[in-house]
Write a structure and sequence with these properties.
alpha+beta; two-stranded antiparallel sheet; 3 helices; about 30% helix
Length: about 70
């Protein structure tokens, strides 16, 4: 789900997910979106994005393997 939803965010070109380090690198067009919008999108998927905490409902819907 994460994979398809991130690419739906306007301006996101691609991303690299490092499951071992639990990080994501997002490549985006700054003319179409900004870092705040991307962090908000990540939060809505149930993950923390720096200072923006994960949406609790989305977090609860994650598979057990995705919860910290």
């Amino acid at each position: 789900m994460f994979q398809t939803e991130m690419l739906k965010v306007k301006g996101v070109k691609m991303y690299e997910l490092d499951e071992e380090k639990e990080t994501i690198t997002v490549y985006f067009n700054p003319k179409k979106t900004n870092l705040q919008n991307i962090k908000t999108a990540i939060s809505k998927l149930g993950f923390d994005a720096d200072e923006i905490k994960a949406d609790l409902v989305a977090y609860e819907n994650l598979d057990g393997c995705c919860k910290a």
